[in-house]
Automatic annotation (TrEMBL):
Domain DUF2786: start-end pairs: 216-254
Residue ranges that the Swiss-Prot or TrEMBL entry lists as coiled coil: none
Domain DUF7168 per the UniProt entry, residue ranges: 284-376
The species this protein was found in: Lentzea rhizosphaerae
Protein name: DUF2786 domain-containing protein
Entry-linked InterPro entries: DUF2786, DUF7168
Alphabetical list of Pfam families matching this protein: DUF2786, DUF7168
Region (Disordered): 1-32
Biased composition regions of type Basic residues, renumbered to the chain: 1-17
Amino acid sequence: MGKRNREKRAAKKKVRASRGPTPPRYDFDEPWAPPPVVSPEMVAEGLVQAAHAHEVDSEFVDGTVADLAGREPVAPVRTVAIGAGIALAATIDLAWKRGWTPVDVREHLRRAGDAAVGSLVIDVVAADTAKYSAATVDERWAAQVRELGAEVWWEPGVPQLLQWADRRGVGLDSALRTAVTLLAGLMKLPELPHIVPVPGSASARSSASASGVDQKVLARVRALLAKAESTQFPEEAEALSAKAQELMNRHAFERAVLDADEHRKQTAVSTRLWLDAPYVDGKAHLVDAIARTNRCRSVYYSRMGFVALVGESMDVEITELLTTSLLVQATRAMVAEGTQVTRGGTSRTRSFRQSFLVSYATRIGERLEEAGVRAHDPVEDERLLPVLAERSRLVEETFETMFSNLTHKSAAVTNGAGWHAGRAAADRADITVGRQAVDA
């Protein structure tokens, strides 16, 4: 081969190398197929998968968000936002089927401390509730939705997540990360007993308010307890708390007598009281003491941080009101004791306060039990006692149906000074129930 031919071949090889690999030959007899279109349902499935990997594979979550909201997203923004809405709606519905309620979900997620997640879940609750006719939403459920302030504020026609992101001043990628975090939190919720019919399943009968508490009486009681919580004078707090307890118990027994006269069927309801750290065990003992003396049963979910109550609707409401007030008073009295240290300088504040609350709860229970004996006129016993007996039977049956395999747990008291201080504080918060007139 001559020199000239070798030069030509070398030049051609260089050109081919600069062009890259030889493109494939297409068979134009086969029909051309466009790339698959990503649907909202596919986006929803991708977000659910990312939620499953939320705590174990951050790279997968990052990749999912990049695919949906990066420089070259696999789907239009509207499609992505609609898909996120589908995933959130399906997952919140699963939470309802597992026995959770709007307030339960809010309280559980609030403990994670993510404000964005807390904001988004309220909108998800609002969107879910709006799907149903008001007649099919139980009043207790609707009351929780109102408590959360869950309302549809966004305009129709534009996916809610986009308007939520705009309202908070964040991009789609940040909104999707919040959605994934919320999905992950909702998917981990355990099964709980159902305490309120889920939206869409309530009838006119079940939607009616189960509570027979006179709202005027309730307003007066709340005002008394608010004063008891705000005053700096123990004697005044005692008098106000006693007046509130007296007013509620008198109203409860009068309602029971009315039920007897009108032969009303007795009912039992359940609710959950969420307790804030620290010293949740001690606070749970106080709830139990108040519940027992107001004819309710309680179960403490130590891992979750709440106490479930079962009782007649008014008795449950009394328990909730007294618990809220007495926790405020107990905490104030406990903190007033100051920090506690040994002679060697070792802190014993935690054991002191835990023992304080257990002792406080025990003494409050004794005082309320004593007061309960005097809470009604013996003349009414003939009409009152059968009603109370029927309520007690129904509460026990409902409790046994809802809860099984319970473990009885006692709180450890390791600090004698805390025990005595708590008992003294409970004596100062003495709650006496009588039949004399109550003015508020």
